[in-house]
């Protein structure tokens, strides 16, 4: 296989297969691929084009090549599936040519969304955690600096002082009573 011939070695395709096979599965060895990752590979590598090949086609082919009781395909079964999808994806090309073109889409590829959980936009988090914007009972849980008040902010702690809650002269009883003598 010469470099310029446009042929992709099976080893390159197998590397892509292994990268997708372990994607999102910590227990995966890379020698077998589940249906979800098979569809992902087909999407990421543009095998699914929405015209010749749809995700339904990919599902059907996956079911066809896997062993009945199995939920995964081996690399060998994967190559059979690709051979079947290739002629749909590249209509009018010979089987070999179509498979080569399909493998060309996969060579050097890896799952597109490594690190998909990007950190949420800071402004959204800031807005939601800014206690100065809180209303209602939530407002009571934080002091003006935004620091939580702890239990005081969460529970209604009864005032056992004996005074009515809104009475302004709290603590003046003794001086009034004793001062009159």
TrEMBL record:
Q: What Gene Ontology terms describe what this protein does at the molecular function level?
A: tubulin binding
GO terms for cellular component:
cytoplasm; microtubule
Region: Disordered; residue ranges are: 132-168
Q: Which InterPro entries match?
A: EF-hand-dom_pair (IPR011992), TPP/p25 (IPR008907)
Question: Which SUPFAM superfamilies does this one have?
Answer: EF-hand
Q: Name one GO biological process term.
A: microtubule polymerization
Compositionally biased tracts (Basic and acidic residues): 137-157
Q: Does the keyword Cytoplasm apply?
A: yes
In which compartments does the protein localize? Cytoplasm
Which keywords belong to this entry? Cytoplasm
Which family is annotated? Answer: Belongs to the TPPP family.
The protein here is known as Tubulin polymerization-promoting protein family member 3
């Amino acid at each position: 296989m010469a470099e310029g011939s446009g042929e992709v070695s099976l080893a390159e395709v197998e590397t892509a297969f292994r990268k997708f096979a372990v994607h999102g599965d910590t227990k995966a060895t890379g020698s077998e691929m589940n249906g979800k990752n098979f569809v992902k590979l087909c999407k990421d590598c543009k095998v699914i084009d929405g015209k010749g090949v749809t995700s339904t086609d990919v599902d059907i082919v996956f079911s066809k090549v896997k062993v009945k009781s199995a939920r995964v395909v081996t690399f060998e079964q994967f190559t059979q599936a690709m051979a079947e999808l290739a002629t749909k994806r590249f209509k009018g090309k010979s089987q070999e040519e179509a498979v080569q073109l399909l493998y060309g889409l996969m060579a050097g590829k890896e799952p597109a969304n490594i690190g998909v959980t990007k950190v949420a936009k800071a402004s959204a988090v800031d807005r939601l955690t800014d206690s100065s914007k809180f209303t209602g009972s939530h407002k009571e849980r934080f002091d003006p600096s935004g620091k939580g008040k702890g239990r005081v902010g969460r529970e209604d702690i009864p005032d056992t002082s004996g005074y009515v809650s809104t009475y302004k002269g709290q603590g003046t009883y003794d001086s009034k009573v004793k001062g009159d003598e």
